[in-house]
Amino acid sequence: MRLTERTDALCTKNFRDKNKNSWKYIPVKQTGHRKINPKDIAGDTGCRFKKSPVGTLTGSGESGKKEKKLDVLSFRAKLGYSQREAGYIPCVDEAGNLRYVRVIRKSVVKILLPIFFLALIAGGLWWYLSQRGIPDLDEAAIAYQMPDGVKNEDPNEILMPGFGTITMDAGGTTVHAALANPEGNPCYFKYQISLSDTGEQIYESGWIEPGTAVTEWDISEELPEGEYPIHILVQTGSLENYEEEMNQGVVNATLVVR
């Protein structure tokens, strides 16, 4: 099949073949101005099908160049995933009938879309895994060194601070006492303090990382002057994943309101 390129006012795009010859074609968006019958499509170009050409499209070369030629492949009803219809090169066959050679191009959107979604999934997975082991730290926690510079020297052990008597001023709810997580501990701490007599919880901290402490905290209610036995529960969470509980500690102490 021998086809000859035909000029057309609707041809506003250029297709360059592997020999760098330029072929004007009608973009798909403009084909609405002219209904193209599928029976008039002689074949395809611009695609890489493992098929022998069914024809040749010829045309006048650019100034100073010889006649240009383009292999025309058989029309493919179903395009590949990454392919799209770009437009149609108008031409005539040997009998003078108007025909078209369909121009197939790569669809950048279809090529990049799976990459985008894979990147999105990978990014989401990375964020989830990176955030999974990081708790919401107590905003009141500050850098803190234990008395006499004591710190945990054994990463397989958990160093618990000791409590005896904690004092606070009557007429308020603020307590000035260090709820610490000693430096070198392999875990986060969370403190829960309850009244031993009633079991009522009067304070709960956020997560406290090693080497820091909450040194000023408020109990849930104002207490009259007196001595109150308290129960201090120290919850633990691994530094790698705070949801993984390690050995917790329980300390009995006395809260003195004066």
UniProtKB/TrEMBL annotation:
The chain crosses the membrane at residues 108-129. Keywords: Membrane, Transmembrane, Transmembrane helix. This is Uncharacterized protein.
